[in-house]
Amino acid sequence: MRVKVLPIQLEIHANSNQSLLELLLANGIKIRSLCKGVPSCAECRIRIVEGLHHLLPPTAAEIRLIGNTSHLDGKRLACQCRLFGPVTIDVSDHLATEKEALKKIKGINENQLSGESRAVVRTLILDAQDDGEKGDHSAS
Prior knowledge:
β1 (2-6) and β2 (10-13) form a beta hairpin. Strands 2-1-5-3-4 form a five-stranded mixed sheet. Strands 6-7 form a two-stranded antiparallel ribbon. By secondary structure, the chain is an alpha+beta fold. It has helices at residues 20-26, 60-66, 70-73, 98-103, 110-113, 118-121; strands spanning 2-6, 10-13, 45-50, 75-77, 87-90, 124-127, 136-139. Helix content is 23%, strand content 21%.
């Protein structure tokens, strides 16, 4: 079976023994997943562009997390998708840069993302000297 991954235009050959999450991670495509497929976080949501009918129907756990609207918006949990035919998926939401991902963390703002962290700036460094003199203590 073929899985076409958009927007990176990658084709992966799959078998029905793997979830889409396992398949994508095994092929180096980073998909967010806090629960690693339990399912409990709904972070691995992807969009099925073509071939929704080649996936097993949503599980009860998947429906509890994201509802039963996959037939309308094509969104499914990658950890719950088992395929039995070719599909095309869109993982655009998971290709955000590290900076964009950090912005989504509550309490982090743009100013905190640039420059050195305060912990590094105010670290005490001890300079050892070979001549037996007492070390010079300076903050960097």
